[in-house]
């Protein structure tokens, strides 16, 4: 079971959170210029990394706020917790 | 190799079962093949079998990184049914269900297909309406489906809690009589044996670590046993599909999640059918050994760890005890997880890719066991001909660019 450190509330059990999937998927800035290929890639295609995964989490049963997590999808170890909008942090592979 | 029969059984019994031949060979990989299947689960082995049987391709290999059937094929709760909502889905799953019916004879291997019926419960009026809609859709698509009332449910499954005072009372349900369960390992072994007899090389402990691609064409794969060449590569790697796609520089619309199941200590027959509930998120059947086979949901985050989290099975067990009060004192014997490849529209992907010669069969997520014979049959056609069979044409990667999704969350997200 994951122990997740909410940047605002501190260490809480995974049951209080929900995972919002892959982070750093940037909403198109000029949607009018996008073709079907670009839309399909944006909406559906995922890295689904085996290893370090950068993902969004929300403390739904707590403060309700979103933040980003770098986590290993193999060991489940949480490697970094950082703000939405920040760059991917440096983490060990 | 001799056929299995009552006579073979008698002969071998007299010899104290010491002389049964090996069921498949264990060959060293050849330097090249006409086609390579990556992934020795049920779907990969079935693909190889139909490639050899129906398309005359016998110079092919199945590469499996561990042991055959060690992935989701050997980890699933074995429910077989075809009562999906959309006509495209009904066609593909019913194609598989029809193949299940003759599979033991076809493979000369008892896959223990047991059409004992599959029930989906409705716990509120909205759900009852949704399920009735699915029944009508099934009937239009030629798939057997019927509504059952609580009184009928009492006869079909006496241990079900039909108390109207329940937190989520049971208002009725759907029944697909042709649905049921099968023996998962036997499916892998049966297809492996049948494919091997047709000359297919099944190579275990052979992990694909890279793809050789030149000018947009696949030429072979790199493996833990060296490079193996082939002009056609079909990837059937379930939870690891994205990892293999990344080797070819591709992304897929998949997320890998652990899906859990557990079995109880064995008890006398108490559960004559399969019961599932989307609402309270649990389902149960009984194996021939007497264990109650209980299925849970997926963990909410990506994982390749092949072990699920405790909160998920706690929720499932709460629901099971409410639905089947008789289970409240049962001990659970084992719990495990498999990594499932969840697709955004809860439908599979059987598709060519932008890399010529490279094909994927994946995205079956939480519910692909039931499709094993159909999936293998259709993927073999796709690999042999280089283009989709009409039944799997709607399930190409194209749909994520055209928008023609086959949304099956109602029929597939919880129920497997
Ligand atoms: C707990 C659980 C319950 C389920 N219940 C049901 C159910 O009741 N009904 C139903 O219809 N479905 C169910 N499913 C889903 C079903 O198990 C799968 O959809 C189906 O078995 C997938 O079969 P497959 O052959 O594609 O995958 P797998 O059997 O997982 O085979 C894929 C194989 O690829 C191999 N592989 C991966 N990477 C590589 C590599 N790099 N090189 C070589 N080989 C590789 C793996 O080792 C694996 O053996 C359930 C799944 C789980 C986990
Ligand atoms: Zn918080």
Question: What's this entry about, in short?
Answer:
The complex is a heterodimer of chains A (93) and B (416). Chain A is mainly beta.
What does this protein look like?
The complex is a heterodimer of chains A (93) and B (416). Chain A has a single domain, classed as Folate-binding superfamily (Folate-binding fold). The longest helix of chain A is centred in the middle third of the chain and has 8 residues. The model of chain A has no long low-confidence stretch (mean pLDDT 96). Chain A starts with a strand and ends in an 11-residue tail after the last strand. Chain A is mainly β and 93 residues long. Chain B contains twelve helices and 19 strands. By secondary structure, chain B is an alpha/beta fold. Helix content of chain B is 30%, strand content 23%. In chain B, the strands form four sheets. In chain B, strands 5-6-4-14-15-16-13-17 form an eight-stranded mixed β-sheet. Flavin-adenine dinucleotide binds next to helix 2, strand 13 and strand 17 of chain B.
């Amino acid at each position: 079971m994951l122990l997740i450190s909410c940047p605002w509330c501190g260490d809480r059990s995974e049951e209080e959170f929900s995972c919002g999937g892959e982070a750093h998927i940037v909403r198109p800035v000029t949607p009018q210029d996008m073709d079907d290929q670009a839309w399909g890639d944006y909406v559906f295609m995922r890295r689904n990394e085996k290893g370090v995964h950068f993902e969004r989490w929300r403390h739904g049963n707590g403060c309700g706020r979103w933040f980003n997590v770098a986590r290993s999808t193999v060991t489940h170890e949480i490697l970094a917790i950082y703000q939405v909008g920040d760059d991917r942090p440096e983490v060990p592979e | 190799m001799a056929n299995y029969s009552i006579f073979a059984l008698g002969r071998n019994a007299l010899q104290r079962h010491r002389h049964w031949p090996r069921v498949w060979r264990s060959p060293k990989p050849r330097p090249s093949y006409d086609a390579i299947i990556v992934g020795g689960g049920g779907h990969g082995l079935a693909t190889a079998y139909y490639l050899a049987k129906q398309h005359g391709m016998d110079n092919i290999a199945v590469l499996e990184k561990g042991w055959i059937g060690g992935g989701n094929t050997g980890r699933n709760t074995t429910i077989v049914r075809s009562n999906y909502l959309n006509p495209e889905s009904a066609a593909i799953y019913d194609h598989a269900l029809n193949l299940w019916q003759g599979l033991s004879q076809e493979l000369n291997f008892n896959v223990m297909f047991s059409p004992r019926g599959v029930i989906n419960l409705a716990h509120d009026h909205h759900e009852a309406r949704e399920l009735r809609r699915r029944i009508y859709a099934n009937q239009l698509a030629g798939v057997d489906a019927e509504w059952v009332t609580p009184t009928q449910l009492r006869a079909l499954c006496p241990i079900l809690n039909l108390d109207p005072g329940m937190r989520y009372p049971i208002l009725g349900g759907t029944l697909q009589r042709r649905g049921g369960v099968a023996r998962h390992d036997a499916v892998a072994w049966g297809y492996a044996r049948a494919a091997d007899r047709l000359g297919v090389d099944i190579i275990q402990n052979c992990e694909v670590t890279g793809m050789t691609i030149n000018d947009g064409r696949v030429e072979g794969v790199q493996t833990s046993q060296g490079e193996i060449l082939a002009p056609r590569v079909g990837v059937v790697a379930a939870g690891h599909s994205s990892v293999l796609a990344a080797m070819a520089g591709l992304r897929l619309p998949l997320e890998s999640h652990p899906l859990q199941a557990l079995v109880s200590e064995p008890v006398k027959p108490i559960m004559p059918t399969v019961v599932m509930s989307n609402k309270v998120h649990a389902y149960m059947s009984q194996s021939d050994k007497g264990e109650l086979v209980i299925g849970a949901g997926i963990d909410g985050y990506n994982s390749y760890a092949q072990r699920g989290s405790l909160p998920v099975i706690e929720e499932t067990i709460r629901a099971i005890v409410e639905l089947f009060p008789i289970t409240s004192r049962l001990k659970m014997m084992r719990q495990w997880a498999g990594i499932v490849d969840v697709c955004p529209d809860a439908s599979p992907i059987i598709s060519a890719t932008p890399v010529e010669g490279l094909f994927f069969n994946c995205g079956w997520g939480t519910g692909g066991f039931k499709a094993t014979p159909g999936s293998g049959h259709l993927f073999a056609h796709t690999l042999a001909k280089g283009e989709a069979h009409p039944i799997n044409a709607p399930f190409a990667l194209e749909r994520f660019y055209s928008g023609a999704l086959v949304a099956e969350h109602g029929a597939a997200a919880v129920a497997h």
